[in-house]
Structures are given as structure tokens and as C-alpha cells.
Write a structure and sequence with these properties.
about 150 residues; Cytochrome Bc1 Complex, Chain D, domain 2; binds heme C
Length: about 150
């Protein structure tokens, strides 16, 4: 009996690793919904502190955002649903906020830097919940489906 258990140990270990990976995947935190008031409130605080200087207090983006600034860089787009933020899934948005476009786009010269050092993954999710609370029902539902 003991011999049998020892013999099947590697298989057992592989099975345990594999099933824990599956569980981890099932606990994926996307899509992020706008249903938690607490998350939205937390997100608002983190947003005002870290993002409002460029994306503006009401998320409307820089004035004339489709143009470029004095350095020739793109200006901060609106995040409130009037731009194209809602066309990106949660994984992409989370990565843009965490790592900045610099880590995602080769030779990126623009101003969207990452907030990896300032915000935890949970805080980034809260900011996303806050951002989503500005979107129309259609935009929100479209983006939720995209993020599943
Ligand atoms: C220093 C100015 C600045 C700050 C601060 C800043 N951003 Fe940005 N952000 C930008 C610019 C500029 C772009 C457009 C980037 C480009 O196209 O080069 C952008 C793009 C984005 C995008 C992609 C939007 C889209 O519609 O594709 C998201 C999402 C975003 N920012 C979220 C945030 C969040 C959340 C914060 C705060 C945690 C933040 N940004 C802080 C300047 C900033």
C-alpha cells in the first residue's frame, strides 16, 4: 500500500499544482463591475490623487484632447466614456494603469506612465470601478462582455 502511495506521489503533486492553477484562474478578478459603492469610493480617492491632474477631476480629459501638447505628445484622453477607453478590456486597462504605455508600446515617448509603485492591483481595480461608474449603460455592458 505504502509503495503504491509513494509511486503515485509525483502524479498526485502534479494534480495538486494543476488544480490550484485552475482555481487561481477561476478567481480572476475581471470583469470589474460598478456594483460596489465602497470600491467606487476608494477608486475616486486614488483617482483624484493620481490621475486627475491629467485626466481632469470629472474624467473629461485634457482640453482639446485629440491634439498634441507643446512637447508633441498626445494629451490625456477622457476616461468618462466619451473617448474610446471602453473599447479596451479590463486586462488591457489594468496593464495600462499598472505599467504605463511605456512598457506596452515599443519606443513609447508619451506621458502615460505606470502606477505600479503607487497603487496596488486592488486599488487599480477600484479606480477602474470608479471610471466605469461614468459610462453609459451601453458602454458599460459592451465593455463587461469584452472583459469576460
Ligand atoms: C502625466 C499625465 C497623466 C497622468 C497623471 C495619468 N495619465 Fe492616463 N494617460 C495620459 C496620456 C497622455 C494618455 C494617452 C497616452 C498616449 O496615447 O500616449 C493616457 C492614457 C490613459 C488610458 C488609456 C485611455 C484610452 O482611452 O485608451 C487610461 C486607461 C489611463 N490613461 C488611465 C489613467 C489612470 C487611471 C491614471 C491614474 C492612476 C492616469 N491615467 C494618470 C496621461 C496621464
Amino acid at each position: 500500500m505504502l509503495k503504491y502511495i509513494i509511486k503515485s506521489l509525483p502524479v498526485l503533486i502534479i494534480f495538486i499544482i494543476f488544480s490550484s492553477l485552475t482555481v487561481a484562474k477561476a478567481h480572476n478578478h475581471f470583469p470589474i463591475t460598478n456594483e460596489s459603492k465602497i470600491m467606487i469610493e476608494r477608486g475616486k480617492i486614488a483617482y483624484q490623487k493620481n490621475c486627475a491632474s491629467c485626466h481632469m477631476v470629472n474624467l473629461s480629459g485634457a482640453e482639446d484632447w485629440k491634439g498634441v501638447d507643446e512637447d508633441g505628445h498626445r494629451k490625456a484622453p477622457p476616461l468618462n466614456g466619451t473617448g474610446h477607453t471602453w473599447h479596451h478590456d479590463d486586462k488591457t486597462l489594468h496593464a495600462i494603469i499598472k505599467y504605463g504605455l511605456a512598457k506596452l508600446v515599443n519606443n513609447y515617448q508619451g506621458k502615460m506612465i505606470g502606477f505600479e509603485d503607487e497603487l496596488s492591483d486592488k486599488e487599480i481595480d477600484s479606480v477602474l470601478a470608479y471610471i466605469k461608474s461614468f459610462w453609459s449603460k451601453e458602454e458599460y455592458e459592451y465593455q463587461i462582455n469584452l472583459s469576460k
